[in-house]
Write a structure and sequence with these properties.
Elements (H helix, E strand, L loop, with lengths): L12 H14 L16 H18 L20 H6 L4 E2 L2 E9 L3 E8 L4 E8 L9 H12 L10 E7 L2 E7 L6 H9 L4 H20 L2 E2 L8 E4 L11 E4 L6 E2 L8 H5 L8 H4 L8 H17 L9 H10 L5 H4 L5 H10 L11 H12 L28
Helix pairs in contact: 6-9, 6-13, 9-12, 12-13
Length: 395
C-alpha cells in the first residue's frame, strides 16, 4: 500500500505511526498524537492523508465504541452519533420513530412511520461528523434526490431525502427480509455456484441501472443487500436481492473529492484498492464491480477474498495481495465463475470489467454455458462474429 510521500505498508513514518496506533488500541491505551508535519507529508498529500485517516479511524473504531481516548481525527467539538441518538426525539419531521434498526460508519437507520403516506419506512440519519465539511450536506441531499429517481426491482426504493431542522435524512422502503450477511451466517454459504451467479447477476443489473443514471454506490456489501425470501412451499426458489443504503452514493460526474462518497468511502473487505489508497480520480463504475466480485467470491467459496487479523492488515492485503483462486478454496466452483470473480478483483481498475453491464453480460454467458470474456474459448479472433448469444456452448 502506498502512503503519502512514498511511505509503504512495510516502512516509513506513516506505517510506524499506524503500528503504534493499532498497538495502543489493542492495549486499551490512548493512541499517539498525530503530527503530520513530523511525517514528511507535504501540502499536496495532506488532504488525501487526512481523508485516509478519517476512513481508517472509522474502520478501527466501531461506531458503538465509547469511552476515553483520542481518535485520529478529533471531532470532540462537534456532536457525536451517541449524543445524537440519546437526544433523538420521538419524531423527525413528520416521521414517527419506532426503533433503531442498525448503525454503520455513516449513520443510524430507524424504523419509522410516515403518517402522511400511511407506510413504514427505513429512515437513515447521517452521523453529524460525516457532513461537517463545507458543501457536503448540500451534495448529500443532491445525490440522495438522484437516488430517489431510481426504479429497479432489485433496488430498495428511496422515497425522499430532506431536512428536519438541522437533521438530514433519507426515507426508503422498509423491508422485513434479512440482510445477505444474516442469510450467509444462517448456514447458507457457500452457495451453489449457479445460484450464486444468479443472485449476483440480479445485483449487477441493479447496479447497471444506477450507473446508467450517473450514480455509483461505493459501499456494496452483504450488509447493504436485503433479501425477499421465497415462500416456505418453494424451498428451491432463489431469494430476491435488493440493494439498499445509498448514503454513500455519488454522482459519477461530480467533481473528484467533492462527493459524499469521497468523504466516507466504503467498508473492508469490499473496498477496491483505489478506495483504500484514496485515489479518488480512479473511483468509477469499476469500483462497484470490485465489490460485486467480492460478494460473488464470498457466496461461492464461503469466505471473503481477503482475511486478516487486523483491519490494517486487511486493507494492506486488499491493496497488495492477490486473493486465492476460488477453486482452491472450494473445488465445486466452476472455472468460468472463478475467472469472473477474479477479473472483478483485479487490483488495477482498468483490468476489471469496465462497468456493471459488462459483468452482467459475462454472468449471463456463464449461466447459459457460453464462453465468457474472463475465460474465452481460444483467442478472440477465433470467436464467431455477433453478440455473446451466437458463441458456441461449452460442453
Amino acid at each position: 500500500m502506498t502512503a503519502p510521500n512514498g511511505g509503504t505498508s512495510s516502512g516509513g513514518p506513516l506505517s510506524r505511526w499506524l503500528a503504534r496506533y493499532h498497538e495502543a488500541l489493542e492495549q486499551g491505551e490512548t493512541p499517539p498524537e498525530l503530527r503530520p508535519e513530523e511525517m514528511g507529508v507535504d501540502e499536496a498529500d495532506l488532504d488525501r492523508f487526512r481523508s485516509f485517516l478519517h476512513m481508517l479511524d472509522r474502520t478501527l473504531r466501531p461506531p458503538d465504541t465509547s469511552g476515553p481516548g483520542r481518535t485520529i481525527v478529533d471531532l470532540s467539538d462537534g456532536p457525536t452519533a451517541a449524543s445524537e441518538e440519546a437526544a433523538l426525539p420521538q419524531a423527525i419531521g413528520r416521521f414517527q420513530i419506532e426503533k433503531k434498526l442498525g448503525r454503520g460508519g455513516f449513520g443510524i437507520v430507524f424504523r419509522a412511520f410516515d403518517p402522511g403516506m400511511g407506510r413504514w419506512v427505513a429512515l437513515k440519519i447521517p452521523r453529524a461528523e460525516a457532513l461537517l465539511a463545507p458543501g457536503v450536506r448540500r451534495r448529500f441531499l443532491g445525490e440522495a434526490h438522484v437516488a430517489a429517481q431510481l426504479d429497479h426491482p432489485n433496488l430498495v426504493p428511496v422515497f425522499e431525502a430532506g431536512e428536519a431542522g438541522t437533521i438530514c435524512y433519507i426515507a426508503s422502503a422498509y423491508c422485513e427480509g434479512p440482510t445477505l450477511r444474516r442469510w450467509i451466517k444462517a448456514g447458507n454459504s457457500p452457495v451453489e455456484p449457479r445460484r450464486a451467479a444468479r443472485l449476483v447477476l440480479a445485483m449487477t443489473r441493479a447496479v447497471e441501472h444506477m450507473h446508467a443514471r450517473g450514480l455509483l454506490h461505493c459501499d456494496l456489501k452483504p450488509e447493504n443487500i436485503l433479501l425477499d425470501l421465497p415462500p416456505d412451499d418453494e424451498p428451491d426458489a432463489d431469494p430476491t436481492p435488493r440493494i439498499t443504503d445509498f448514503g454513500l452514493a455519488r454522482l459519477i460526474d461530480s467533481p473528484i473529492g467533492e462527493s459524499t462518497a469521497a468523504k466516507a468511502w466504503g467498508t473492508p473487505p469490499y473496498m477496491a484498492p483505489e478506495q483504500i489508497e484514496q485515489r479518488r480520480e480512479v473511483v468509477g463504475p469499476a469500483t462497484d464491480v470490485y465489490a460485486l466480485g467480492a460478494i460473488l467470491y464470498e457466496l461461492a467459496t464461503g469466505r471473503p477474498p481477503h482475511k486478516a487479523e487486523s483491519p490494517w492488515e486487511l486493507m494492506r492485503a486488499v491493496v497488495a495481495d492477490p486473493p486465492a483462486s476460488p477453486r482452491s478454496v472450494n473445488r465445486s466452483v466452476p472455472r468460468d465463475l472463478g475467472a469472473i470473480a477474479m477479473m472483478c478483483l483485479e487490483k488495477r481498475s482498468r483490468l476489471r470489467y469496465p462497468d456493471a453491464a459488462t459483468l452482467a453480460d459475462d454472468l449471463e454467458c456463464f449461466l447459459e454455458r457460453r464462453p465468457t470474456s474472463a475465460r474465452p474459448l481460444g483467442p478472440p479472433a477465433a470467436w464467431p462474429a455477433g453478440p455473446p448469444a451466437t458463441r458456441p456452448r461449452r460442453p
